[in-house]
Amino acid sequence: MKIMLETERLILREKNRNDVQNMINLNSNPLVVQYTGDAAFENEAEAEKILDYLLKQYKDYGYARWAVELKDTREFLGWCGLKYHADKNEVDIGYRLLQQHWGKGYATEAAAACINYGFEQLQLKKIVGHAMKANTASIRVFEKLGMLYLQEATSHCSEGVVYSIER
Predict the structure, then answer these.
(1) SS3 readout for the chain
(2) Which of 2, 62, 93, 103 has the highest local Cβ count within 10 Å?
(3) Domain count for the chain
């Protein structure tokens, strides 16, 4: 297990084959995936396919979405990280947490660490965030991170917004 980042309360690490059940648990809550365009995984094979995609991103780019755990207990909270979109030549910040961990500042704490990593270690010039307009909690996280509204966009077949932050 490769730890990528640590914050005051969190560890962000590369996902691995042991995370398949964590991924299934995360995506099985309709409220967690409500604004993502994703559906619950039908089986382990679907979760493994996403995991394979992440492992390829780690290899190709050195980063992707990382597992987020509490530092003191190592409890799995969800994921957060940067993702390179070759079709747009852009990097976005994304996060998804188990519902029982919402409202505790974990998404903001993890995302801030990822943005700092992107600017300081990867020398990125700009990071964007995409959200559905109705996802006001995610938009509040963007704003807490210092991201600025960039434009409206179609997000997961719904009305969305794009925020950005530059180094």
Answers:
(1) CCEEEECCCEEEECCCHHHHHHHHHHHCCHHHHCCCCCCCCCCHHHHHHHHHHHHHHHHHHCCCEEEEEECCCCCEEEEEEEEEECCCCEEEEEEEECHHHCCCCHHHHHHHHHHHHHHHCCCCCEEEEEEECCCHHHHHHHHHCCCEEEEEEEECCEEEEEEEEEC
(2) 93
(3) 1
